[in-house]
Amino acid sequence: RNAMDICVPEKYGADFCLMVSTDDFEPFLSYGDYIAVKRCNGLEHGDWGVFSLNGYQVKRVNKSAGMCRLESINGNIEPIVVGDLLDKLTIGKVVYTIRHKMKDEQN
Predict the structure, then answer these.
(1) Segments of the chain assigned E as strands
(2) Alpha-carbon distance 105 to 107, whole Å?
């Protein structure tokens, strides 16, 4: 797809879209799916965000036991402990997802 094919409802206020290029969010998102991102900082526990860590990374925020970690959904990748650096590393919040294929079509 090119950028003209991606349609994000205006109510989400997305600033940009990124194509998923890892399996960090399998089975919820697959390679080639898109995420729409709203620039912000101050993400909450459970939010999906885009972070500046060795390039761009999409992770879920886990704030528990006085610690802040960035996690992948599928559990194959070790969490990244960021502590009080969360706001400095945050580029934005994932506000919308666009699946490029239904699971049944991928086989």
Answers:
(1) 16-19, 34-39, 48-52, 56-64, 67-71, 80-81, 90-98
(2) 6
Mind listing the pLDDT tens digit for each residue in 50-88? 999 888 889 999 998 888 999 988 878 889 999 889 999
For 102, counting Cβ atoms within 10 Å of its Cβ (0-12 exposed, 13-18 middle, 19+ buried), the class is exposed
Q: Decide if 82 contacts 89 (C-beta within 8 A).
A: yes
Q: With contact defined as beta carbons under 8 Å apart, do 73 and 24 qualify?
A: yes
* Nearest in space to 62 (alpha carbons), one of 94, 27, 86, 41: 86
Which pTM was predicted? 0.82
Evaluate whether 14 touches 6 at the Cβ level (below 8 Å): no
Q: Are 96 and 36 within 8 A, CB to CB?
A: yes
- Both tokens of residue 45? 């526990």
